[in-house]
């Protein structure tokens, strides 16, 4: 299973917004710059997350983004289910599979997906902000505008999506 880009960006936004030790509001442009991603794509992600009630989005001068709840209220399994659209791993109907009447594969994959999400539901956004992730987010917040951090080889491996 591989998370889609929408989910990847959604998780990065939530992680970035956990850091609250700053006077200015966080903007979409800032997040797009820090993560070197498309602002237009990020707008769609942030809008969707606002509709879910996960973010408080305010427009205009002085506006910005903030988590709607404390980080411990965001269950990772639930967030990923929603961002991914809760689609099955395989679709036996399209294209039609000759085995679908007598095959156990889909049922077993569904059990595996449930176990995957159940495990992730035992973790919250607060959990993933433990060291060293929390410190990396703080560094991103503190870097000067216009300066992008090059991902380390470990970051590349972690963010394959």
Shape: elongated
Mean pLDDT: 86
| Spatial order of strands in the largest sheet | 1-2
Q: Terminal Cα separation, in Å?
A: 10 Å
Describe the biggest sheet?
2 strands, antiparallel
Per DSSP, the total helix count is 8
Order of helices and strands: HHHEEHHHHH
Are there runs of 5+ residues with pLDDT below 50, and where? 149-161
Structural class: mainly alpha
- Percent strand equals under 5%
Helix coverage percent: 40-55%
Question: What's a quick, concise take on this entry?
Answer:
The chain is mainly alpha-helical and 161 residues long. It has helices at 5-17, 28-35, 39-51, 76-84, 105-121, 125-128, 133-142, 153-158, and strands at 55-58, 64-67.
Task: Describe the protein.
The chain is mainly alpha-helical and 161 residues long. 50% of the residues lie in helices and 5% in strands. The chain has 8 helices and 2 strands, in the order αααββααααα. The protein has helices at residues 5-17, 28-35, 39-51, 76-84, 105-121, 125-128, 133-142, 153-158; strands spanning 55-58, 64-67. A two-stranded antiparallel sheet has the order 1-2. The longest helix is centred in the last third of the chain and has 17 residues, at 105-121.
Question: What's the topology here?
Answer:
Blueprint: H1 5-17, H2 28-35, H3 39-51, E1 55-58, E2 64-67, H4 76-84, H5 105-121, H6 125-128, H7 133-142, H8 153-158
Helix pairs in contact: 1-3, 1-4, 2-3, 4-5
Keywords:
mainly alpha, elongated, single chain, disordered C terminus, 161 residues, two-stranded antiparallel ribbon
């Amino acid at each position: 299973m591989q998370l889609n880009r929408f989910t990847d960006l959604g998780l990065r936004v939530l992680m970035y917004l956990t850091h609250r030790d700053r006077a200015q509001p966080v903007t979409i442009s800032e997040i797009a710059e820090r993560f070197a991603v498309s602002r237009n794509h990020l707008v769609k992600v942030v809008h969707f997350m606002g509709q879910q009630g996960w973010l408080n989005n305010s427009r205009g001068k002085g506006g910005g983004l903030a988590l709607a709840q404390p980080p411990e209220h965001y269950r990772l399994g639930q967030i990923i289910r929603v961002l991914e659209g809760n689609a099955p791993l395989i679709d036996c109907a399209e294209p039609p599979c000759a085995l679908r009447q007598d095959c156990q594969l889909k049922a077993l994959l569904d059990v595996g997906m449930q176990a995957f999400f159940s495990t992730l539901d035992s973790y919250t956004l607060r959990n993933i902000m433990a060291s060293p992730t929390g410190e990396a987010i703080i560094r991103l917040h503190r870097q000067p505008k216009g300066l992008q951090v090059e991902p380390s080889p470990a970051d590349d491996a972690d963010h394959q999506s």
